[in-house]
Amino acid sequence: MTAAAKKLDTTGIMEVGIKVRRMDFEFGDAIPDYWYGNDALLTLFLTALSATFPEGEKQFIQSVRNFQEQITDPELRKQIRAFIGQEAHHSKEHDALNDLMKRKGFSVLRIEKRMTKMAQWMRDNWSPERQLANTVCAEHITAIMADFFMTKSPQELEKLHPQVRKIWAWHVIEETEHKAVAFDVYQRTVDDQWLRRSQMALLTALFVLETATSTVQLLRDTDQLTNWKMWLNGTRYFWGRKGMVWKLLPEYLDFYKKDFHPWQHDRLADLETIKQKYLEIGER
Ligand SMILES: [Fe+2]
Ligand SMILES: [Fe+2]
Q1: What is 12-62 written as a DSSP string?
Q2: What is the dihedral of CA 58, 61, 62, 66, to 10 degrees?
Q3: Residue 25 covered by a domain
Q4: Distance, CA 246 to ligand 2 centroid (Å)?
Q5: Distance between Cα 116 and ligand 2 center (Å)
Q6: What's residue 93's pLDDT?
Q7: 207 CA from centroid of ligand 2 (Å)
Q8: Interval between CA 122 and ligand 1 midpoint (Å)
Q9: Range of the domain at 122
Q10: Whole-prediction pTM value?
Q11: Does 163 reside within a domain?
Q12: Which one of 21, 214, 215, 258 has the fewest CB atoms closer than 10 angstroms to its CB?
């Protein structure tokens, strides 16, 4: 039996101990422009993601709140509160990182404005059920990307500038902790598997398009567009035999299974390891 299966409570909710940590990261101007392995493409890929977080996470919170009152299970209700707390703090801290990149002259504001418009469009045009399904899908994409940095390629976190590494390690930890919360709310309220799976196909297309567009837009603020070594390295990073896409594909596809649950990917032991490595001593 896996550690994850052992920690399921009687109502089928994983007891993870989701903790809201109040961070106060400071990102000084001494941080180099390309804080991910001195590589413009990788740095701006993470910057593009960071730029979408404040608005995206606000939308995730709202979509779960819409169904919060329908949940009676006390453990899940507690987890919803922790999920909301964690995501609200992520937005705040990523705002600080986004401000650093704005000060450096990157057009982060353009991405933020686009995200605000997209989120408003979703609220106006999608049912609350579809909005929650979208959050469930986004949380799965976030969880498998977090897993890339936690277990699949942990050396990547080490390539980040120490001051920037802290925010990403913290985000990786918390996204893993709360990866099943929106899913469990969805299963107990909407419970439409076709909607969940079809939304994933749609969100994946949107996510790839949005992230690629934003990364290229940010790269246009640099003199690196014709840096072929950077493009070759980036191609390997995403599409190489040991690249992100191939490493994440099996677990991405698991989401389309009828009986999928996020904790089928048991990461409880890995969570303990990464917490001990990157959070303050005494944190458990
Ligand atoms: Fe988050
Ligand atoms: Fe999340």
Answers
A1: S-B--------------TTS-S-TBTT-HHHHHHHHHHHHHHHHHHHHHHH
A2: 180
A3: no
A4: 22
A5: 18
A6: 95
A7: 15
A8: 19
A9: 32-278
A10: 0.95
A11: yes
A12: 258
Residue 8, classed as helix, strand or coil, is strand
Binned at pLDDT 50, 70 and 90, residue 3 comes out as low
| Least distant ligand from the CA of 171 | 1
CA of 227 to the centre of ligand 2 (A): 34
Distance from the alpha carbon of residue 28 to the mean position of ligand 1, in angstroms: 22
- Ligand 1 centroid to residue 143 C-alpha, Å: 10
Asked whether residue 101 is domain-assigned, the answer is yes
We report the CATH number of the domain holding residue 181 as 1.10.620
Residue 100 lies in a domain: yes
Dist. CA 56 → ligand 1 center (Å): 9
The alpha carbon of 72 and the centre of ligand 2 are apart by a number of angstroms equal to 22
Count of domains for the chain = 1
Q: Which residue has the tokens 């940095």?
A: 149
Query: What is the average pLDDT score of the chain?
Result: 94
Please write the tens of the pLDDT for every residue from 252-284: 999 999 999 999 999 999 999 999 999 875 454
